Amino acid sequence: MRARVPSTERKGAALSRAAAMMCNGAKFQRWVVSRIGAAPDGVSANQHAARYVRDMCGITSRAELDYNARAAALFHEAVRKPFVQWSGIYG
């Protein structure tokens, strides 16, 4: 029998889903390249973006964004807000 995992630690909660959707987006991928350069050979744009998010937030999996308050705060301040400003989505 599997141990029950609290819902806050399951993959796919709101913030990790939002991060995954961002990483799949071409505009976000271009922004990552503008910040850290192109993906190394053999690394997809999605993987490159996901690595950037994990590195900026100090995590090993985007799922940690859903239960690690420090990582979530870093995601908002160091990733989401700068991307929104760069992309001009809200202004």
Number of domains: 1
What profile does the largest beta sheet have? Answer: none
pLDDT under 50 segments (min length 5)?
none
Rg, alpha carbons: 14 Å
What's the rounded overall pLDDT mean? 89
Helix vs. strand class: mainly alpha
Per DSSP E runs of 2 or more residues, the count of β-strands stands at: 0
The coarse overall form would be globular
Helix content: 55-70%
Can you characterise this structure?
With 91 residues, the protein is mainly α. The protein has one domain (11-87). The chain is 59% helix and 0% strand. The protein is built from four helices and no strands. The chain has helices at residues 14-24, 26-36, 45-57, 69-87. Helix 1 crosses helix 3. The longest helix is centred in the last third of the chain and has 19 residues, at 69-87. The protein starts with 13 loop residues before the first helix and ends with a helix.
Which helices and strands, and how do they pair?
Blueprint: H1 14-24, H2 26-36, H3 45-57, H4 69-87
Helix pairs in contact: 1-3, 2-3
In short:
The chain has 91 residues and is mainly alpha-helical.
Observed structural traits:
4 helices; 0% strand; mainly alpha; globular; 91 residues
